[in-house]
Design a protein that fits this description.
single chain, about 240 residues, mainly beta, Jelly Rolls, seven-stranded antiparallel sheet, six-stranded antiparallel sheet
Amino acid sequence: MLFNTTNSVIRPGPERFHSQLDWLDSWHTFSFSNHWDPAWVGFGPLRVINDDTIAAGRGFGMHPHQDMEIVTVMVEGELTHTDSMGHSEVLKAGEVQRMSAGTGIVHSEMNHNDAPCRLLQIWIEPEETAIQPAYDQRSFVVNRDWTPLICPEPVESTMTIARNLQLLRAKPQLKDILSVPKSYDNQQWIQVIEGTLELINNDGSTRILRRGDGIGFNANHPGVEMTSKSNDSDILMFTMM
């Protein structure tokens, strides 16, 4: 069965690492900061998927990054980004930000509003190091089917990063069906932001995925289908090429 063989790996949301501060509630899909498990250092080039809720009036002060592709998917509220490249931008729900840290950047992320905000911050290893730092931020209308956010080739409506990778997002309604296509050479990762979905394997076996759950598919998996079991489902799909 696909869900317990070498073709896939499941990361249940409640089993993720958890950091709780007075201003930050953060769930880490992979090893991060003081949380370390050699079994969970990433999946392919994915190194970090942090689901962060930041309290009103708080945030991350200026801190450095180098040689990493950083993608922020804003889920709820707003976040103010300031960096050493001269950007000072407000990231709103529905928007996606990407940074190539390259030779080095310093930035801060602050919630200046009166309510908490929620975001997913994702770190991806670049294919080349010591590249020129870069920044992009865009708003996306996410459909019930897969909506491209990041693509390997430049497309006007999407972003690119310094990695041969595709990132899609979907917000299916109750009973909507989404496909995770058959893969030959690519790895894929599904991350559930919100809602409930049922994975249906080609042999008829099923598994329920809920908020925070992740599943990674290795190369040569036969493909699966997902059925939304709620009206608030919100999912990301990474394809690492």
